[in-house]
Amino acid sequence: MPPEHIVHIVDDDVAVLRSLERLLCGAGLTVASYGSAEAFSAAIPDLASGGCLVVDVSMPGMDGLELQMVLKTSGICLPVIILTGHSDVPMAVRAMKAGAVDFIEKPYDGHRLLEAIGEALGGTTMATRKSEVAVAAKRIASLSRREREVLDAIVGGRQSKVIAYDLGLSVRTIEFHRARMLERLGQCTIAEAVKLAVMAGLSEPGFEP
Amino acid sequence: MANEGRVTHPARSNNAMLCGAGPWTHAAHRTVQIAGSRGGEPMNAANASRDRTAQTRACGALRHINETLENRLDQRTIGSRTMNEKRRNEIDGRQPTDIQLPQFQTELFQTARVSEAGKFAAALTHELTQPLAAAANFINSARRILAAGRTDQFGGAIGDLDDAALQVLQAGRIIRAMLGLMMRGAAEQRPENVSEMIEEARSLALAGVQDPDLEFRIQRDPDGAKVFADRIQIEEVLVNLIRNAIEAMADCREKRVLALTTRMVDESMIEIAVADSGPGIANDVADRIFEPFFSTRRNGMGLGLSICRSIIETHGGHIQVGSNPGGGTVFRFALAAARWDETANAA
Question: pTM here?
Fold first, then answer.
């Protein structure tokens, strides 16, 4: 198996790590797994270029974002897929802005992860990234002002009741806007909506990928 | 056969056996009768034996995972307690002088509780997400093998499903552990082993404490004795007392000794004493030390010992402070002993 197809996975949870190995190996991928960001960064000098990295964003010690920075400073160009828990949306946003190619919320659908890895290994070029960003920006632009406000608040990691309080509306109204927003974005899940918002955010001026 | 009959009266047994294919260190045997399609007469009987070596090994692994989890939960509890302490200290700095103490105290407890609950929820979400994510991965792995009909890998698929089941059970365990931590409001007293509580409190209180000169002595008399107690609350008291003792000895040049002693006061009461070898406390301080908001520490909130007192009093006991004969301070409290026959009835 050529090194460009190695999937490096970093997760501090032994069961998650082993289950990922099973899933990815079963899908015919070559996997190298690491129990901590430190273990992975120690292996960086020996890495052949190519492949991709799947990393849990929240880990004790060095977290996924810090690992991303280490990769950047070591000059290793490895597409990074971030795995996040539910409450880590702001972290995921930061990871995307720092150049992660994708982020996936745990627990996730196996197809979605394999798809993301496939895209990462296939090399998401700047051209495809640009067109993705353009599509996302267009879809986000179709939202009403309220729907956009609700989505931005969700991206900021706020819950419906907090959003309701901030906007001076009832929780029911927020839930309504939230449902309309998801519908308008194409019946997507919250995770997909957040991803669209993040991608659209990348189109804004002042951002360098 | 499944269409024709229904399986009744399973008889199971587990034991170690040796089999042709290799040693089965653990095996499960199951005898079933297969009833005819109209019920009544048994149509056939079958005997199945299954290698449970892998399962037994997996159970061991699960136990290990659980223990790790418990440690992690403990550490998180400590983490949120420390944060809470910080918060209390901040509030202390702004405490208006004319405020009604009882009202302030209630509000304070609520603030502390809410912030703890929020942090706890985030930690819990993470802890629950992990096993569920792992279970989903294992199931997906098995699904791919089955869907592709790769018969040579069916063993692996079964292993994946076993692992998935273990992870789901793990999630259930986390939920139960969480309930145990959240429900500490209502004191639920049951017979609890004194030595175990002391051991757990000690590891909680000493987490993060690195002091090679600290000597920890535990004297248990009688060993294995039980008291009626809400385990979590009494452990909270012990953690508080141990931490106080360590702080009291912070400036000690000589050897720092923390002694935890249990003894039978009489047939019905067991006393637990936490003694330090610090500078001791003055009499006027000792008189007020359990009062809420009384603290000798510059940034102390003065709530730790009053919480201890209220917990011990809801247990029908009382807590007192005195001088340690060898120098230093000793805190003592007594709890109702759970005698063996009562323990058996309550269990």
Answer: 0.49
